[in-house]
């Protein structure tokens, strides 16, 4: 069984998309960056800290661990930040910060970095996904209307590529699922390392059986 240390509905949706069964566990951590911490180091640290926090909760409450557990449990966690001019943009704390973030992203390219971490017993593995996203020029009215939609407030950089925010995305070079919060190529690679099946593994097994 895998435990997803995340409250993000996007991460839950993406994990379902690749046919992985999971249970949600909480993992609240302090998400403040260190002074001078750069984006990739920050998201990697956050993803690992979330996985560790989930792991501790899981083991503090043995009752959470499924009684049908055949192998040792794994905890998956991720963290996404938008990077512009070397600054780390997380989730805006209010509408005015959301507006400032959106106007900062207008008419230029920024990076979206997501780290995914998987913890199993003494092992912790993590991967990074870096994407470049270019926004068209935004007017003040665009930003105001988008904020009114309610979409920006729980998203890094104050937008969602999978939602109305797609209207602003002129170009993406990288991983769509990574921008959305859980890079699926890297996630599947980690799951494979820990022998956790995905939807692809069950089809592979079917093919192997047919060949026998
Ligand atoms: C850039 C972008 C971010 N996001 C979301 C993904 C993440 O949920 C959020 C970044 O915040 P995170 O701090 O990475 O995650 P979270 O607090 O939402 O969830 P948890 O820590 O419990 O796993 O922004 C989108 O949904 N679409 C996008 O296009």
Structural descriptors:
212 residues; alpha/beta; Maf protein; seven-stranded mixed beta sheet; 7 helices; 37% helix; 24% strand; binds thymidine-5'-triphosphate; EC 3.6.1.9
Describe the model:
- The record marks 10, 80, 162 as: Important for substrate specificity.
- Nucleoside triphosphate pyrophosphatase that hydrolyzes dTTP and UTP. May have a dual role in cell division arrest and in preventing the incorporation of modified nucleotides into cellular nucleic acids.
- With 212 residues, this protein is α/β, with parallel strands linked by helices.
- It has a single domain (2-205), classed as Alpha-Beta Complex (Maf protein), CATH 3.90.950.10.
- The chain is built from seven helices and seven strands, in the order E-H-E-H-E-E-H-E-E-H-E-H-H-H.
- Strands 1, 2, 3, 4, 5, 6 and 7 form a seven-stranded mixed beta sheet that branches.
- The mean pLDDT is 94.
- The structure holds thymidine-5'-triphosphate.
- Thymidine-5'-triphosphate (TTP) is lined by residues 6-8, 10-11, 50, 78-80, 82, 91, 112, 154-157, 159-162, 179-181.
